[in-house]
Amino acid sequence: MTQKVRVAVVFGGRSSEHAISCVSAGAVMSHLDPERFEVVPVGITPDGAWVLGTSDPRELVISNRALPSVEAGGTALALPGDPTRGGLVVLDPDRAGEVFSGVDVVFPVLHGPFGEDGTIQGLLEMAGLPYVGAGVLASAASMDKEYAKKLLAAEGIPVGDLVVLRRGRATLTLDERERLGLPVFVKPARAGSSVGITRVTDWAGLDAAIATAREHDPKVLVEAAIVGREVECAVLEFPDGTVRASVPAEIRIVGTGPDGRTPEFYDFEAKYLDDVCEFDIPAKLDDAVAERLRAMAIAAFHAVDGQGLARVDFFVGPEGELTLNEVNTMPGFTPISMYPRAWAVTGIDFESLLTTLVETALARGTGLR
After folding, report:
1. How many CB atoms lie within 10 A of CB 231?
2. Is 82 helix (H, G, I), strand (E, B) or coil?
3. Model's pTM, two decimal places?
4. Residue 288 φ then ψ, to 5°
5. Do the beta carbons of residue 283 and residue 231 sit within 8 Å?
6. pLDDT band for position 16 (50/70/90)?
7. Do residues 55 and 75 lie in contact, with contact meaning Cβ atoms separated by under 8 Å?
């Protein structure tokens, strides 16, 4: 019998997206083909401790608005196929490489800083371990929305207007406020899952919004609002290097949260806690606009030197004009995440999607490419 490929699924981490990473990892572990893959679950606690063995993937879900977390004292899970190797092993970060002994490929299901930003990718490159997803450059550049937009704009891809507030700079100038206009979106430069984002409709609320964003990142972006529909497109690389884009998918806010409030935008609560959204997959776009969007998603993938996968987010204006919002090199894999759902409608189910990602990582290997 052919030996199974041993896949280390790494999740949790030190970012503010820790809980969403846990939920994504639970879905990934549940859908990796058990006939082909042996899963080694590797959790990283919010404090940075590495844990070999974790709770049952079925427990890595959001339940009654409670978010899952990797805990150093959590329930141990025996590694598949060898119950004698079970138990909880906690390692200091400088010994984290020991977790990967005997692993064939790593699937880093990490969102945000200290994972999606090139840090773990650099560790795995140094260790010579193949891994799913983008390399160091694409991960770091795409995580930092300032530099991602510079790369995209250099390729002629339309992006929105913004101002960057680095550490030590408190607020916008009057000229910048006039240029951006209202409303604006204030967000951490290096975060995702709509964490720390505020929609500002009155300049009196700007400083509070900047303070909220700085709870997650000392560098803050203030972006001009763009009128348009929120449409996403999933990009996938195959083992032979072919890159394809899924059908576009649209998010629509149609309900109210527990407090009776209709979200002003697709914020964290709307994404993960409140049942207020509907999804059109494929999005209801003219064929020409949809094809242009898919082509631009692939162009954006190459502009940031992407590998493996990405989710590319757009605003689609009233006349079909496209503005690229951001590129996510490790999009969510939760049950409601758009990336696997878009591919399912395009014709690649969740299990086949994960198999493709792992096979692409193995075919690519490590090193310069």
Report:
1. 26
2. coil
3. 0.87
4. -65, -40
5. yes
6. confident
7. yes
